[in-house]
Amino acid sequence: MRLDLEQRLREAAPTFLDANKDVPFFERGFEIGDGWFDLLLSALQRIEQLVTVGNLPVRVSQIKTKFDELRFYAKPNYVEPPPGHAEIFDIIRETERRALHTCRDCGVEKARSHNCSRLSNA
Q1: Does residue 85 contact residue 56 with C-beta atoms inside 8 Å?
Q2: Rounded distance, CA 116 to CA 55, Å?
Q3: Number of independent structural domains in the chain
Q4: For residues 25 and 61, is the Cβ–Cβ distance under 8 A?
């Protein structure tokens, strides 16, 4: 992902993206294409609101592409799930589902057989 887009995502969710040094996100950052930026920005803004207002101890663990799909991992730090916990993970799963129909490189809605023009013109 382009550094300017990554910075905008980090600014949108500073609490949730405050990764511990023991998780992959700390060293690798966003391991995804630019096309998923809008999906991720929307999700991170919603999650940040839940994390900060509800004071939820949930932090990002990893955000990457695996098998051409968005993988979004979060690490809860509590024994009993507090109110708001399920909503965070619902947002994550919804974002992963939406990414299945969005080109990771250009961001257009696509069928599985989408051939990104950005790639063919490179």
Answers
A1: yes
A2: 40
A3: 1
A4: yes
